[in-house]
TrEMBL record:
The lineage of its organism: Eukaryota, Metazoa, Spiralia, Lophotrochozoa, Mollusca. Its EC number is 4.2.1.1. This is carbonic anhydrase. Belongs to the alpha-carbonic anhydrase family. Gene3D superfamilies: Alpha carbonic anhydrase. It catalyses: hydrogencarbonate + H(+) = CO2 + H2O. PANTHER family: CARBONIC ANHYDRASE. It is found in: Secreted.
Length: 448
């Protein structure tokens, strides 16, 4: 479905004057697309609940919407950035006068199949007219662009600062990217991070077996889309979060590449597993809530041998070497992609954002301390992916050599941890205790 909001130029005084003015900019029409959602869009109810009063064509009843109805409430949440396309056109119904400046937005509105069926039950015929005919298929076919041009507000962001589209430019085009809860961050020295006993440990449900994934080159990373009901819970999350996709961040060389850093130290790569809060139903809806997403971050270390687990993914990378290409794989055990120790994993916790535009501040971050192993050869395979579409002949330029966002200011946010002592701390503590015992024993022996 598509929504049109019609505006007339104020200097023309009325809609009728604007339509008859023959001015090419007399009307400004905003176009919004709808997408199917699994649940009803409650914001549409003030309109849909009045359909019985306009069941037939040319109904003369004046329908009053709720006094607190807001037109803005049914529009998309732009998350700080409006992506739209602009062109000069016409009314899409007779007499098709060419007096419209069209603005068509990329952000969509949700509507359920049930709510669409309600619209399909109104009539294009008047009451009592026979035969009655339902109102549907009320769209005009596409028209030829002719010599007209289309302009766009869309900012095609990248990680390349020299193109003025890199991370330092994001906030100029995506308001949220300049917010106070941005990610990634430099996680302080663990000794300076507060232990939170209530966090406990993350529980993984279904991670031992995941089937039917689509591996995609999205132009910024290698992304694996997850199908099925796989969840995480516990770990202080309060409820279940469903897995949606995972992707990777790396750099040109292995001295860095992770987005998060530990006390200033970077890792060669970072894996992000994105989950949405189950009650929100989708990533799109979850982005409207500060606790909408739970993202797990895993660091990598370089090993001398290939990781068999990551060969399953990288085996398909040649078929997705260029932006927009996808490949299917029938079976992946997500557990095999994580650290060897599956239970009682140590992690840091903080509230943050997406690390890519629109940088929405809707993420509960869980960043684990135990790294995953991968070889230098396997990292090189990822660095050979391209951020451009496949050309007619293979090329070596346009590769995704670095796709990490620099760390952002903590801005007073609290970072917590679910462990009291790291392995190193326990070893140090044991050493200190042993030294104390030896000193006491020496003192007793000396004085007796």
């Amino acid at each position: 479905m598509e929504l049109h909001i019609v505006h007339y130029k104020t200097s023309l005084g009325s809609l009728a004057n604007a339509v008859n003015s023959n001015q090419s900019d007399a009307l400004a029409v905003l176009g919004f697309f709808f997408e199917i959602t699994s649940s009803d869009n409650e914001d549409l109810e003030p309109i849909l609940s009045q359909l019985d009063d306009v069941h037939y064509a040319n109904s003369t009843d004046l329908v009053s919407l709720s006094s607190n109805f807001s037109l803005k409430s049914i529009l998309p949440d732009f998350h700080g950035h409006q992506a739209y396309h602009r062109y000069s056109g016409s009314l899409t119904t007779p007499n098709c006068l060419e007096v419209v400046v069209w603005t068509v937005f990329e952000n969509t509105i949700g509507i359920s199949e049930h709510q669409l069926s309600m619209l399909r039950e109104i009539f294009e015929t008047e009451e009592g007219e026979t035969p009655e005919k339902l109102l549907y298929d009320n769209y005009r076919p596409l028209q030829d662009l002719q010599s007209r041009s289309i302009t766009t507000s869309t900012f095609h962001w990248s990680y390349e600062e020299e193109l003025n589209t890199g991370p330092s430019q994001w906030a100029q085009h995506f308001q949220a990217c300049g917010g106070n809860r941005q990610s990634p961050i430099d996680i302080p020295n663990e000794d300076d991070v507060q232990y939170a006993e209530n966090l406990g440990f993350i529980k993984f449900c279904g991670y031992e077996e995941m089937r039917v994934h689509t591996i995609t080159n999205n132009g910024h990373s290698l992304q694996v889309n997850i199908r099925g009901n796989f969840y995480i819970s516990g770990g202080g999350l309060g409820t279940r979060y469903q897995a949606a996709q995972f992707h990777f961040h790396w750099a040109k060389t292995s001295n860095r590449g992770s987005e998060h850093t530990f006390d200033g130290s970077a890792f060669p790569m970072e894996l992000h597993i994105v989950h949405f809060k189950e009650e929100y139903g989708s990533v799109t809806e979850a982005l409207n809530h500060p606790d909408g997403l739970a993202v797990l971050g895993f660091m990598f270390k370089v090993s001398s041998t290939d990781s068999e687990s990551y060969d399953v993914i990288l085996h398909n990378s040649s078929g997705i070497a260029y932006y927009g290409e996808s490949s299917n794989t029938s079976f992946i055990r997500l557990f095999q992609l994580l650290p060897i120790k599956q239970e009682n994993l140590h992690f840091f916790r903080y509230n943050g954002s997406l690390t890519t535009p629109p940088c929405t501040e809707a993420v509960i971050w869980t960043v684990f301390t135990d790294p995953v192993s991968i070889s230098e050869k396997q990292l090189e395979e990822l660095r050979h992916l391209h951020h451009i579409m496949r050309p007619s002949i293979p090329v070596t330029y346009g590769t995704i050599e670095s796709n990490y966002r620099p760390v952002q200011r903590l801005n007073g946010r609290q970072v917590l941890k679910n462990f009291q002592f790291s392995a190193a701390s326990r070893t140090l503590s044991a050493g200190i205790m042993l030294s104390i015992v030896i000193c006491i024993s020496f003192w007793i022996t000396k004085n007796h």
